[in-house]
Specification:
The complex is a heterodimer of chains A (98) and B (209). Chain A is an alpha+beta fold and 98 residues long. Chain A is built from five helices and three strands.
C-alpha cells in the first residue's frame, strides 16, 4: 500500500496539470492557446500550472514569433513522460485494489 | 474513516483517468510513427527497383505488354515491396508506441490511417485504370503524386516531417510527367532515396530519444 501511494505524484495532483501532461504525452508539442482551449481554463490559471510543471522539469517551454505574434509552446520531457506513466500505473493499481 | 477516504480517492482517480483519456483523444497526433521503418521501406524500394531494372534489361521483345511474364513480375515486385514496407512500418511503429507509452490503435492512429489511405487507394485504382487503357507512361507519376498527397493528408495527424516528404513526392511526380520514360528513376528517387533521407531525419529527431 505504501509503495503505491509513493508513486502517486504530487506534481500531478491537480486536474489541470494532469490535463496538460495528458495532451503533451500524445502530441509533439502544444501551444498555449491550444492547451487553453482543450482544458477550458483562464490564461493566468494555465500559466501558473505550466510553470509548476516546468520547474519540475516535466515540460519545456519554447517561445518564438510566428509573424509578429509571439507564440509559446510546450513539450513533455522524457522525465515528464516517465513520471506521468508511473503516476498512471499507480492510479490503476489503486483502483484495482479497492 | 480510512476506507471512506480511500473510496473517495478512488472515485477521484477514476474521474482523473477518464479525463486523461478524453484529452488524449481530443488533442492527438499519432507520434509513434517510426523513422527507421521509412529507411527500411526506402531500401526495399531500391532493391525492388534494381530487380525491375534487371527484368527490363533482360526482356527480349521490344515492348512490355500486360500479358508478358516480365510485366507480371514487375507488378509482383511492386506488390512485395509495398507489403514488406507496410509490414515493417507496422512492426516498428508498434514497438516505438510501446516504448513511448502510446496506444497503437487509438483515435489518432485511426484518423491517420483513414486519411492516408483515401488518396492512396484512389491513386492505386487510378493507376490500374491507366494501365488497362494503355497509358503506361503515366503510372510512375500518378503513383508518386497520389502517394505524396496521401502523406500530406495524413501529416495533420502525425509528425510534421511527413508533410515535407509528401510535398517532395508530389513535385517529383509532376516532374516525372515531363520526363516520361524515366519512370523507374523517379520511383528510385521518390520511393527509395526520399524515404531513406526523411526516414533518417525522423529517426535521429524522434526515435533515438
Amino acid at each position: 500500500m505504501k509503495n503505491i501511494i509513493q508513486n502517486i505524484n504530487k506534481a500531478f495532483d491537480h486536474r489541470i496539470r494532469l490535463g496538460i501532461m495528458s495532451v503533451l504525452m500524445v502530441n509533439e508539442s502544444a501551444d498555449f492557446s491550444t492547451l487553453k482551449e482543450l482544458l477550458g481554463v483562464t490564461d493566468g490559471n494555465l500559466a501558473s500550472h505550466t510553470k509548476a510543471l516546468e520547474s519540475e522539469n516535466y515540460i519545456v517551454v519554447e517561445k518564438q514569433f510566428i509573424g509578429k505574434k509571439p507564440n509559446t509552446s510546450y513539450k513533455a520531457t522524457p522525465e515528464g513522460r516517465k513520471a506521468f506513466r508511473d503516476h498512471i500505473e499507480a492510479l490503476e493499481k489503486l483502483i484495482q485494489k479497492s | 474513516m480510512f476506507f471512506k477516504v480511500l473510496y473517495m480517492n478512488t472515485q477521484d482517480y477514476l474521474q482523473d483517468i477518464k479525463e486523461i483519456k478524453d484529452l488524449m483523444n481530443k488533442s492527438t497526433q499519432f507520434i509513434s510513427l517510426s523513422g527507421l521503418s521509412g529507411v527500411l521501406a526506402g531500401i526495399y524500394a531500391l532493391v525492388g527497383a534494381g530487380y525491375v531494372y534487371y527484368l527490363i534489361e533482360n526482356h527480349t521483345e521490344n515492348y512490355i505488354t500486360l500479358e508478358s511474364s516480365t510485366f507480371k513480375l514487375i507488378l509482383l515486385t511492386a506488390m512485395i515491396v509495398l507489403l514488406a514496407s507496410l509490414f515493417t512500418s507496422y512492426v516498428l511503429t508498434v514497438k516505438k508506441a510501446k516504448k513511448m507509452g502510446e496506444e497503437v490503435w487509438n483515435a489518432s492512429s485511426k484518423r491517420l490511417l483513414i486519411n492516408f489511405f483515401i488518396p492512396l487507394i484512389t491513386g492505386g485504382i487510378f493507376a490500374i485504370l491507366l494501365l488497362r487503357n494503355g497509358y503506361y507512361g503515366l503510372v510512375a507519376p500518378i503513383t508518386l503524386i497520389f502517394y505524396g498527397l496521401a502523406c500530406v493528408n495524413a501529416s495533420k495527424y502525425t509528425l510534421r516531417d511527413v508533410r515535407y516528404l509528401g510535398i517532395t513526392e508530389v513535385i517529383l511526380g509532376l516532374m516525372a510527367v515531363e520526363f516520361s520514360g524515366y519512370g523507374l528513376y523517379f520511383w528510385v528517387i521518390g520511393f527509395g532515396i526520399c524515404h531513406i533521407i526523411y526516414g533518417s531525419v525522423m529517426y535521429f529527431k524522434y526515435d533515438r530519444k
